[in-house]
Amino acid sequence: MIGERARAIDRGLIEKAMIEGNAASTSIPAEPLWYKDAIVYQLHVRTFFDSNADGIGDFQGLTQKLGYLQDLGVTTLWLLPFYPSPLRDDGYDIADYTDIHPSYGTLGDFKAFLNEAHRRGLRIVTEIVLNHTSDQHAWFQEARQSRDNPRRDWYVWRDTDDGYRQVRIIFTDTEQSNWAWDPVSKQYYWHRFFSHQPDLNFDKPEVVEAIWEVMKFWLEIGVDGFRLDAVPYLVEREGTSSENLPETHAVLKLFRRRMDEHFPGRIFLAEANQWPLDVRPYFGDADECHMAFHFPLMPRMFMAIRLEDRKPIVEILNQTPEIPDACQWAIFLRNHDELTLEMVTDEERDYMYDAYAKDATMRLNVGIRRRLAPLLEGDTRKIRLMNGMLMSLPGTPIIYYGDEIGMGDNVHLGDRNGVRTPMQWTGGWTAGFSLADPERLYAPVVSNVLYNPQIINVDSQSRSPHSVLSWMKRLIRTRKTSRVFSRGTIEFVHPANHGVLAYVRRLDQEIILVVNNLSSRAQAVELDLRAFRGSIPVEMAGGNIFPRIGELPYLLTLGPYDFYWFRLRRL
Amino acid sequence: MAGSKDKPMADDSLLSDEFLRQLMAVEEADLLVGIPTLNNSKTIAHVVQAVELGFAKFFPRERTVVVAADGGSHDDTEEVVRNANLGDPHRMRAPQSLRTMHRIATRYPGPVNSRNVLRTILAAADLVRAKACAVISPDLLSITPDWIESLLRPIYMEKYDLVTPLYLRRKFDGLLISNLVYPMVRAAYGLRLREPMAAEFAFSGKLASHLLEQGIAADQQSPHSVGIWVTSRAICGGFGVGQCFLGPKVQAPGNSSSDIVATISGVVGDLFRSLEREEEFWIRETGSRPLPAFGLPYDVNLEPLRVNRKQMIQMFRTGVVELKDILKTILREGTFAGLEGAADPRAESIPFPDELWVKTIYDFAGAFHRSVIHRDHILQALVPLYRGRVAAFTQELAGADETQVDAAIENLCLAYEQLKPYWIESWKIHQ
Amino acid sequence: MIELVMQRLTQTLKSLVSAAATYLPRVLAMLIIVIIGWAIAFAVKAALRRILKIFKFDAFSEHGGVSQTLRKTGLAGPSELLCRVAFWVVGISITVLGIDVLGIPAFQDIISRFFRFVPQIFVALLILFVGILVANFLATAALLAAVNADLPSPRFLSGAVRLLIVIITIIMALEQLDLARITILIAFTIGFGAVMLGLAIAFGLGGQDAARRFLEKYIVEREKEKEKEDISPL
To answer: Are residues A104 and A57 in contact, defined by beta-carbon separation less than 8 angstroms?
Structure first.
């Protein structure tokens, strides 16, 4: 009788979900600010799941694993580039903007994936690389044919390689110049990244129109937004650093206006690896990008937990400017690139290298090419604390695939491939990623003694309620109980104990107090909470109540790397 | 810091720190029973014992807590609650719970009224994340451990959100309920919920949090009608509602108020106000559905209540004559003419058929909704008519047995349902 | 002689003409003022009607029982009445203002007194309005209480309450107008005293026994009835 009724309810819910899902098979119920409440999961199709035993992940495989992602609780997937490409920069060298790389499937597979994701309430954000194409792209092939080709000035050409002298070189480890010689048409072309990635010329209206056509193509299929790769570099001007130019903003505003007009509810997520004050213009007056990454916060979180001192985090957040209400920071612990140390001081960079990359092979460009778990020495207490902060600081959190189970890396795979190894589903030879022979995989599975699939995999962690994965699910569920985290303000509490990072998130009447112990030792801390006297703190993970806040400093004790979220209630 | 400024520390609506500490000790509970008390030292020990025996007998593994929310008794009620003992020798073979059973007696914050009691019990339920909760009267003489099972099991095991009781009543007991509140709520929401304003009911933790969040309507005047508020909020919130048989309800004498005018205008006023608030939920309902009922109904012979019909008839007749002007502004013409006929002093008895009564009530509801005259006056003008109806009803069924009385009430309910369009017409008229 | 007559005549004519010359512009001014005044009055009336409609004044006075009272007196509805009062007050006031322009001293005194009087009229009307509201409310309350408490002659009680309050209100209104207050006060005192005295004598002397019997019977019976009346509504 009991079970019967519960099952009936379940069945009813499932049917209801299916009906609603079908009714909205191409889009999820409109909530204009959905990206503010989103929890984003970042993944590469190639790395996730292989459905056809060719050793490379594909869209059909990803579609099969959507249930896992829905169960994890994330609401949005951010897919790394999946376009046809010579794959000399992990797909960021796009050879055709409007198709799928044959290894990953067909456009039909993509559409089926998108519909299934939407049916499950998951939104999809894809990559668009605006700044450059691959040198294999038809546009470049045409442009390089002759100096008077109509597509010639879709790219930036010079007779000499001494233009734009003030512009820095980003991939310092591989490139000596931003100019590269084209032996076919006997001229230099401009590139901000690898030499096989010629920059598009956004001074040319035809280029702007062509890129808009690309966006329209994907928006019409139904993607919910774009991560705009390398946006600060679109336009170049002599005598400047050619980053963040007003002309670049004008191009972005134009795209935004058109998207709002024809595809309301879709978003831009800007990748601008800059100081917060320089990123601020990318939000415009809520008329440019909806979201932008907060790059400097991430290294400082690692720094703070290593220093056992809250100072770096408080400092950088205090320097972070206000952004329009409809905009949101995207925050993350790790991603597919190196842990970038461009947005730190020299002193800080040296400390980070000493603390997290003693071995020089771990360093790449200006950063550290490692995953979350190895960076934190596999200490699950620290992994939890870092994720706890990620989920409670202002912004939309982004989880990098595999970090929810504490996957390891392989720094010896070259470039950033060490953090792009196959997702570890089970303890088998191929980590359950593929039915192909292990040596056929696009990259070897992590074999490190601490992080190999026998030790770290989804299957075993799903079976234990105490695993990192199960814990992450609970954390995400708790975060989703309140919009305070995604939309509220933040005020820091400043207890004398510098090892404790405490802040108050607030949205209308709802108030949440977060207390993090950044230290490896148990701590007692006295918080000045007089502003909230009379409130009862209710610990959000367990639901237990704590003594009412009064006039006296509020005493809390926290074990090593413990953290609490309290909902302050007036009852 | 806005929150702190407009609500200073000396906020007397906050739960006491002592109460919070006790809730902290409970930590989390599966089952919670709340008992509103006020000078009940004579009866409360029995009630607490029955509740805890019920816990031990039917829910030995569950985490349980009894919360006695006291309005400031002068007779050591709180002390009696704390000391009520289960360990009497003759009960040595009584079942035992596996866990510590928690029992809390606290003075609830704010002025003494049923709203603050309910709010305290809801807050306690929410804070200890109780899965199933019940409210029980402190002066019940007829409560047995079985009541706890009957009330809580449908919530705890069957995932219902609200369970209201089915009492075994004496003949002609609760006439206001059977002639007005029950049929009107039934016609409104389309649910055959027999006791929409019972003092005993059970609810899920989910419903408790929902009700707490809604904030208990502040315009209630009758202590009895928090039940109406709970019931209508649960129905309108789409919560699952069931009923359970409890058997006879016998309360210690003395506490119930005997002022019919105050009781009727309080209860009916609260009912009308609650219907006004939930208008969008009931205006389109038609017909009615039965609710699932749990437990075993049984029968015992209870002595019927005696009714003094003579005086009621006389007061009804005086009322219709003297209040003619007022009644004419409240009632539609045909209805008033019917009443005048019923009040004809030459007749032996009063002919007060169901249809006339239902139309009268619907006209009153409409007049109340539209505030044609002061609302208190509308409610008071109903009292003589209610007396007339009671006289007619009891006279007609003087020799009837329980089944016949039930059949009569069922017919009345159908009349309410059939005449609902009349109600909506009365409700919607704009002068 | 004729010459003298002619002289007189021309003189008179001259003075008449000169008088006309001085007064004619004033008369014209007065006419213009009066015409504009009545136009304003008309506008005020229309505006007031609309405002009262927006604020549902009729429903309000219906609710308070003023409309019923007015209906009994055969007057228009309350808002229509108010509009008309406003119309006439504005119209007359401006007419009076126009007459003032003529500069006739005898008028001027009356006019200034008239203008001192206008606000008092309004206050008096307001007092009457509120008084009727209160009287009706309390009368209804008394009626219901009496019926529900099974007291004898509920309507008489209710009527007495209403009468008392209406009389007090009228006195207050008249006092506001400063009209013959002493006369009214004395008249009222005498009247009220006489009624009370009459009642006292009637009950105290003539109907002593009857009253005692009535009360005894009433109280004892009620007590008895009370015992039997134990319907519990809940």
So the answer is: yes
The domain boundary, picked from B269, B294, B319, lies at: B294
Angle, alpha carbons A278-A284-A285 (nearest 5°): 140
Q: Ranked by mean pLDDT, which of A187-196, B255-264, C76-85 comes out on top?
A: A187-196
Q: Find all residues with CB under 8 Å of B418, minimum gap 6, and list them.
A: none
Q: Is A497 helix (H, G, I), strand (E, B) or coil?
A: coil
Are residues B26 and B80 located together in one domain of the fold?
A: yes
**DSSP conformational letter for B289:** B
Check pLDDT > 50 for residue A3: no
Asked if the Cβ–Cβ distance from A545 to B15 is below 8 Å, we say no
* Pair type for strands B64-70 and B102-107: parallel
Q: What percent of chain C has pLDDT over 90?
A: 0
Of A294-298, C46-50, C198-202, the range with the highest mean pLDDT is A294-298
The alpha carbon of B81 is separated from its chain's Cα centroid by a whole number of angstroms, namely: 24
Alpha carbon distance A327, A289 (integer Å): 8
C133 secondary structure, DSSP code: H
Question: Is the CATH code 1.10.10.10 the one for domain A32-123+216-228+244-480?
Answer: no
In terms of residue numbers, what domain contains B254?
13-294
Angle between helices C105-148 and B375-396 (to 10 degrees): 30
Residue B271: phi, psi to the nearest 5? -60, -50
pLDDT tens per residue, range A550-559? 999 999 999 9
Domain ranges of chain A: 1-30, 32-123+216-228+244-480, 138-190, 484-569
| Burial annotation C174-189 (CB, 10 A radius, 16+ → b, else e) | bebeeeeeeeeeeeee
| Strand ranges (E), A70-198 | 76-79, 123-129, 157-158, 179-182, 187-190
Residue whose token pair is 């549902």: C56
Give φ, ψ of B123 to 5 degrees: -65, -45
CA A252, CA A270: separation in Å to the nearest integer? 10
Residue in the block written with tokens 């009637």: C202
Considering Cα of A166, then A167, then A173, then A174, what sign does the dihedral take?
negative
Cβ pairs A/B, distance under 8 A: 57
pLDDT digits (tens, 9 = 90+) for A486-533: 999 999 999 999 999 999 999 999 999 999 999 999 999 999 999 999
Residues B209 and B321 in one domain: no
Task: Report the C-alpha gap between A103 and A59 in whole angstroms.
Answer: 9
CATH topology of domain A138-190: Oligo-1,6-glucosidase; domain 2 (3.90.400)
Tokens (6 digits) for A318 = 């205090």
A16-20, A154-158, B33-37, C215-219: the lowest-pLDDT one: A16-20
The CATH number covering residue B122 comes to 3.90.550.10
In a domain, B360, yes or no: yes
Contact B390 C231 (CB under 8 A): yes
Q: Mark whether A271 is an active-site residue.
A: yes
Indicate which of B224, B311, B390 best probes the interface with C, i.e. most C CBs within 10 Å of its own CB.
Answer: B311
CA angle A318, A323, A325 (to 5 degrees): 125
Question: Residue A77's beta-bridge partner residues?
Answer: A41, A124
N residues, chain C = 234
Which residue reads 């009615």 in tokens? B288
Q: Both B105 and B211 in a single domain?
A: yes
Q: Which range is least confidently modeled, A96-100, A437-441, C47-51?
A: C47-51
* Chain A residues within an 8 Å CB radius of B28: 543-544
From the list C144, C225, C233, the residue facing B308 with the nearest CB is C225
Same domain, B206 and B252: yes
pLDDT tens, position by position, B169-181: 888 888 899 999 9
Q: Do chains B and A touch (3 or more CB pairs under 8 A)?
A: yes
User: Do the domain assignments include residue B390?
Assistant: yes
* Total number of domains constituting chain B: 2
Contact between A515 and A527 under an 8 Å Cβ cutoff? The reply is yes
